Amino acid sequence: MRLWPRLLRVSFLLIASFCLLGQIFSQAPRIETKWWKDEKIRSELSLTAPQDKQLDKIMAEFRERLVLISRDLDAKRKERHAVEVVPTIHLQAYRTLTDQIYSLKEELDRVRTAFSIRLGEVLTPSQEATLRKIQSKRH
Fold this sequence. Notes:
The chain is mainly alpha-helical. The protein has one domain (29-138). The chain contains five helices and no strands. It has helices spanning 3-25, 39-45, 49-84, 91-122, 125-138. It starts with a helix and ends with a helix. 6% of the residues are buried.
């Protein structure tokens, strides 16, 4: 009879440890930067003043949404971590928070994709090709 509670405790500690390691090694949410303001990139892409204005406008349009979703995601991760470290973990609360985190990640991906598409609409095909080359060098 005494073995079962110990197994539960050990299992909980293992799960909590893996979750904590996952949080430590996972990337923090990134907020897109104004990469087109970098002089080297500007010159490589030969960006025009109207393109610069359009890119600034798109960034202003998306930035608030990106920041809000990233903040919500960070808050949910912290909330889930608080549930993880409680000795009597509530699995339903943990599952709910995990579902909310995945939903926020999906929403963030959708907004980032829409953001990238809008930025791409401003660039010419040759500028897009050059940008892809620049990005592949950095990653």
